[in-house]
Design brief:
The protein is α/β, with parallel strands linked by helices. It has 9 helices and 12 strands. The chain is globular, with a radius of gyration of 20 Å.
Length: 327
């Protein structure tokens, strides 16, 4: 059953950064649960997991480091989806892109032949590293850098991109968008379940677009530098429906879904993509990944995933068994 939007909801709030009034919202969420006879999530016969990929200020709030232009509208629809479907969403799994300054994709890691760091959005190829156009700022990392850019190209991943400093651990950009944080908190109180926060991207030696694993897992000598998040994968596979939203459609959302389907192809039949709650990376005049995002979603549909909209009734989603029939 879809619910009305709660009285505290202000759609325009998605573009702001503010403190969630936890005590007040907790009391309101408990009262809302009683009014609408919401059961604890642990009693759900049909388990729906909502994966929120990197819905953080750094990507979603105007003026922040890697702002995705479509994100505010995505987040308004996302919050309303959560509020309307409090009784259907079993658990929310927010991922948090998490970085420090000295990582392989930040300018501090690289220099040119004159010792200058690259500007944001520089794309670094294996050929350029081999030719000395770019090298590791710390000579001890040079062997790793060469191995890393070669590995990316061999795997047909995006080439190494120098991103602006973003999602900095301890900074405001790292936090969930305030309105989304509020909706996640409200859901947790109303359904008596804590969100399952997942940290990703804090390994300095590799990029980590996917929530399920890094781009490169081995160093130049075959040593392990990262591994798949098996615990998260197993958690997702326990859901009857895996719903995915967040930012950016062209990068972290796409790679998360790619990894999920690579590890568990059969999961496609219970995978639902909220197409109106995700947008690609677009920096006018600099980069535009809209085509890559469209191609990725077409690939997922071919694999069996369903593309849905946040305004569609969950009970109308194709392939999803109605809650009532599972009781």
């Amino acid at each position: 059953m879809e619910l009305p939007l709660p009285p505290h909801w202000v759609p325009e709030s998605v573009e702001g950064v503010w403190r969630v009034p936890y005590e007040q919202r907790a009391a309101e969420a408990e009262a809302w649960a009683r009014t609408h006879a919401l059961r604890p999530a642990r009693e759900d016969a049909r388990r729906i997991g909502l994966v929120l990929v990197d819905v953080q200020n750094t990507f979603c709030t105007p003026g922040f480091e890697l702002f995705v232009p479509g994100a505010p509208g995505d987040n308004r629809r996302l919050c309303e989806f959560v509020y309307r479907n409090l009784g259907s969403i079993t658990e929310i799994v927010p991922t948090l892109d998490t970085h420090v300054a000295d990582q392989v994709f930040h300018a501090a890691w690289l220099v040119d032949s004159d010792g200058r760091h690259p500007p944001p959005y520089t794309v670094v190829s294996a050929e350029e590293v081999e030719a000395g156009v770019w090298r590791a700022a710390d000579p001890a990392h040079q062997e790793h850098l060469l191995h890393y850019v070669r590995s990316l190209e061999q795997k047909r991943r995006y080439r190494l991109t120098v991103w602006p400093y973003h999602a900095m651990l301890g900074g405001i950009g790292h936090a969930l968008v305030s309105a989304v944080e509020e909706a996640v908190f409200y859901h947790g109180i109303a359904r008596e379940i804590s969100p399952d926060f997942e940290i990703k991207g804090d390994n300095p030696l590799t990029e980590h677009y996917s929530a399920l694993g890094p781009e490169v897992t081995e160093g130049p000598s075959g040593q392990e530098i990262g591994r798949s998040n098996v615990a998260l994968l197993e958690r997702l596979l326990h859901f009857d429906a895996i719903v995915v939203a967040g930012q950016a459609k062209s990068h972290c959302v796409a790679w998360t879904i790619d990894d999920l389907l690579a590890h568990a192809p059969a999961a496609a039949e219970r995978l639902y993509l909220l197409e109106d709650c995700t947008s690609p990376v677009v920096v006018p005049g600099v980069v535009d990944y809209a085509d890559e995002a469209r191609a990725a979603f077409a690939r997922f549909v071919d694999a069996g995933a369903r593309v849905v909209r946040s305004t569609d009734s969950i009970e109308s989603w194709p392939g999803l068994e109605p809650e009532a029939t599972r009781r």
